[in-house]
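Hi W.,

Here's what went into the run:
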Amino acid sequence: MNDAVDVSAVLALGDDCPELEEIIRQYGAEFADRGLVHEFVLVLDGLGDQRTARLKQRIPPGAPVRLLHFNQPFGEERALACGYRESRGRLVVSLPGYLQLDPGDIHLVLDALESRLDLVAGWRVPRVDPIANRLQSWLYNRAMGAFTGVHLHDLNCGLTGMRRCIIDEVLVEGNVSRFLPVLAHRQGFRVGEVRVRHLRERGRQGFFGMGVYVRRLLDVVALLFLTRFTRKPLRFFGMAGGLCVLAGLGICGYLYLDYVYGLSQLGDPRNRSSLVIGVALVVLGVIIFSNGLVAEIIIFTNARNVRDYTLERELPPGLPPAPPGLPPAPVPPAGRRTEGRTSAGLAPEGHAEPSEAGSAPGSKPHDARKGEESRAPDATAGTGDGSPRGKRGTP
Amino acid sequence: MLLPVVTSVHKDHGPQQAGAKRLVSLSVIIPVFNERGSIGSLLADLEATLDTVPVGAEVVVVDDGSDDGTQEVLEQHRLGSRRLRVLRLRRNFGQTAAMAAGFHAARGDVFITMDGDGQNDPGDIPGLLADLERGYDVVSGWRRQRADSFVKRRLPSQAANRLLSEITGVRLHDFGCTLKAYRASFIRRVNLYSDMHRFIPGLAAAVGARVAEREVNHHPRRQGKSKYGLGRTYKLLTDMVVLRMLVRFAGQPLHYFGLLAITTFGLALGLTFLAFVDTTSLRLVNYSTVVMPAVAVLAFCLSFYFLMMGLVCELALRSNPAREGAHAPMARLEVWS
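Here's what came out:
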């Protein structure tokens, strides 16, 4: 059943979406044109009963729609992440909540996904929104490119397409689904952009409130930390803390020299307020540094569940193992692509190994990695009950 | 027949004699990155050696995102081999990550890691296996006759090895040698991430492995360039600080931070003393009412901060469902019958 869906279109809806019917009809028609079995996954981000009822009336009868309800608004990013997890398609696209883009352009995205790319980000050109919006958007994208080393033109485009493997291997908890292209690229997936036509912009014009920028900035900080220092927090904290300690020691050292040699005639450092500043800097530096140590302990403890690499494929030996007097072990088809599967997920179904041919295959050692094996399937679990659950590790 | 978990809590136990079991199967793990020129002959040598080894063996080559045609060479060998498995990573993730990928995929009871550049000699494998059969859990290669330049590679390496020996309490001459043999049960206990492969012997010893060392051959590079050099000192230094903490205190962080807290508390008491007492006459004096008391208060704050940190760490550790496996020492089971 799950394999039947080719494309899932995920929409995070923060309002009752007046254009929903049009969206479903138009995109549905485009998907049908390609002969793809599709579904729409609508995540209702805390709409409440009335608006939910109104929204339900806008769903065309017979359309393949699955609804996920949040009881309270959690924001677009987390709604999208939830929608991705509960979607079942081989390919997944996110769509903006109104007819912002030309539905025909979905073919560009699907073409790219079916031929060469793992993730496709939309790039709205030419933009039709006011110059102020375009300017901040341009600045934002340039800054993000510089920070993360992944240069994309339009990180905020509502249209993103991806293969299932991205959701299984890249999607992390938190407000970072917006940055999925960046994370995917860093993990070695093939990421690209397609130009899509921008029909109109319904969002807020001009400048957003201060809070929006602050929140976005914090998300960026989280992202930077996630992409650069996740495994080695002390390299980050150690640098900051070390600089603080050095500055503090510099001040204290000067005070000491001054006291011994009387450089400035200001007398005993115990009467001078700069001593407090120096010592406070040292203390601050030590605190920052030991925060790094704490982070290291947490990482080390959880390292069993993190994986530093993503596997493109795994190929067994070309010739079958031939221990004398034993039946040949089953060999999986050579050259099979294992997109989106981790090695742990592959291990149990692998072929019997020559040395273990006479024993119970893979009983004990694999137990030690149970935590990892149970990780792999959770994101693919399309339970079908449509309940919004953000928990991991419950296949 | 799987090898029982045979190890000891104390690493200074002598090698186990009577209970040492035959090794059952072997995985040779080779991370490679752009080694088109040398991987072919290495694999040929390796297969020849493995044919003589009395245990079943597989070779797991992890292609760490090579883009120089290594892939094609590997494919050619794989199609003609009974034991070569090839893993390809999506991009270049670094040697540790590649090794971790190999460890996750390998199925043997014993893991042997090798460099893909042909500097390690497959002929050393039987010796390493013999050491494991004697009862050691980790056997590290020692490139006594290193075929590298003295100033650029050997001198910094000697300094690093001395330091690592101090920090981990495991005396080895050559932590950096990739040719090592492990009992798989220990590797599955050691969490491997970000540049940690050098520290595996130390981390394994911290959970109770017996570590030994054996001299191995070292060839000069036949092809290609070294992917290492100087200029990673900062990373290595922070890694060592972390390692020292992990080796001694990963299971009981409160001890680490508690010690720091007590030390700082003593310092704070000393500062308080200095704030009110003249050191030469030992009489109460009236300094600035702000400066020295403030300094003392800062030190007290730091002391309590350390204590709180230790508690937070304990919390993070104890609330982790996987903690059982992570830090608990492995004990050697001896059965009398």
